[in-house]
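Lab notebook, bench 4. The sequencing result for the construct came back, and we need a structural model before the next group meeting so we can plan mutations. Quick request posted to the team channel:

Model the 3D structure of this chain.
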Amino acid sequence: MRILITNDDGITAPGLRAAEDIALALAGPKGEVWTIAPESEQSGVAHCISYTKPMRINPLGPRRFAVDGSPADCVIVALSHIMADRPPDLILSGVNRGHNVAEDVVYSGTVGGAIEGTLARVPSIALSQGYGPDNLELDDLFEGARRAGPDAVRRVLAMPWEAKADYGLFYNINFPPVPGDRIQGIRAANQGRRPGGAFKVTETVAPNGRSYFWLAHAKGNELAAEGTDARGTAEGWITVTPLRCDLTAHDRLADVEAALSGAAARRTA
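Done. Here's the predicted structure in token form:
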């Protein structure tokens, strides 16, 4: 198996090494693992691409490159340039430092990398490691993802992919904020919603007396609805969420068509 890895935490991020360990376990001795990741942190850039500025590619070693762009840029660079002769069989985006559940999915550069791979019809999975009081002080924050990641990805690879669809499936895997030996198991989950939203603004005052404002991640995963990714990871489960890039509200198309037809009829009456 030929696997491409990217992330949004940057080429030096410890979570990228965790993803490489997972990929090596999956690829086997005859496989290949390619790492093409942003040269600096790109958290929160979602599916951003560098449409109005040029990029540079910095080779760092065999099958390892840094790109001064977003995760989606890295996937485009990989598929159209570095690996153009033979595309990967799988794209892993992560392992992100921090969960990507609920509203995070909309903002996440990790998910953005998986979206770009999916648009190119390459099976793609976003991987994120939650952190909190139970695992933040571990020597390896990503121990849970390293331990459970290969099996979780193998299970997902056995699921439907809709590879030929215009907007096929991709999967979002979140590892809970606990040590690996305390993971409850793995379960399917829908994308949740936190009652208080995803972010808030925190004010700080600089030595010169000027105020600056930072975005701070809100809390409340445990308050999300039962069966959601946010609630599941808060309770110690690995969650797997199938996602699509198609943003069309298909359940409302008939209503929109009826409303537009009615409006047209009234104008011609």
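Residues 2-194+222-268 form a domain with the Stationary-phase Survival Protein Sure Homolog; Chain: A, fold (CATH 3.40.1210.10).
Will bring this to the meeting.
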